[in-house]
Amino acid sequence: METTDTINIKPKTKISSEEIPFYKPIDREVEVFQHAFKNRLPMLLKGPTGTGKTRFVEFMAHQFEQSIITVSCHEETSSTDLIGRYIIKGAETIWVDGPLTNAVKEGAILYLDEIAEARPDVVVAIHSLTDHRKELYIDKLGITVKAHPDFMLVASFNPGYQKGFKELKPSTRQRFVALSFKYPEPKIETEIVQTETGLDKDTSKKLVNIANKIRNLTELGLTETVSTRLLVDAAMLINSGLPKRLSVKVAIVEPLTDDLEITQALTDLCDLMI
Ligand code: ADP
């Protein structure tokens, strides 16, 4: 018997029409997703953290009035976590469907965030859903479930950016239609920061300039650079009244590095730019 504490699943969300997620398209990703959805092709969203992958899935789900079930994968995430397990309830042993089985039965979008982090058996479990069979085999029950016509699999993947990163096997990648997410052009990113937080255009632009400056400082050897998410965080702090320089330091500089010299150098740079 297994416990259920190893999985991180967000509750199923059906985004209501009043709360349309704000998503600013960067390229032709909306069009690609529309066609992938129409053909129920699995999608792989590649790109660094904070580039809008999750927001994009939420936005597309809203467009198609689909529910999303999100699973944030980590090194312990196994196929059992996704498919389901027997649990003890009182004196009984009952079967509980996992998020993948729920999505397959109900016809939701299953979003596997950071799929490469999960255990290899997760990839095996989704194989038959990513090809013409579109079915899920539940080995513990000895049954096969045909996917609901609206079921769609979306996964995200952050391509190797640090030591010890996990790659996705080519045979797995080939099961998906893949889209690359990058940091947007300054004009678009300024609009995202502004719309997302209500910060004025001038300051939003300065934040984006800081981000681009730091993104180009490749010699610093940062494992991750400034994401749109960090800019949005900084903008929110400024908007709520925290001084600009302090906001930039705590939302942009400090999350990037623990190296004292680099922190000081980046803080000095940002102080001049904000
Ligand atoms: P990821 O899933 O790639 O790590 P998220 O989708 O969580 O990134 O994006 C982080 C934040 O950045 C979002 O909450 C949103 O505020 C902002 N963001 C990034 N890209 C966009 C975009 N194209 N349109 C709207 N907001 C965006």
UniProtKB/TrEMBL annotation:
Signal peptide: none annotated. InterPro entries: ATPase_dyneun-rel_AAA (IPR011704), CbbQ/NirQ/NorQ/GpvN (IPR050764), CbbQ_C (IPR013615), P-loop_NTPase (IPR027417). Keywords: ATP-binding, Nucleotide-binding. Residues 189-272 form the CbbQ/NirQ/NorQ C-terminal domain. One of its GO terms (molecular function) is ATP binding. Residues 43-176 form the ATPase dynein-related AAA domain. It holds the Pfam family AAA_5. Belongs to the CbbQ/NirQ/NorQ/GpvN family. This is CbbQ/NirQ/NorQ/GpvN family protein. It comes from Aequorivita lipolytica.
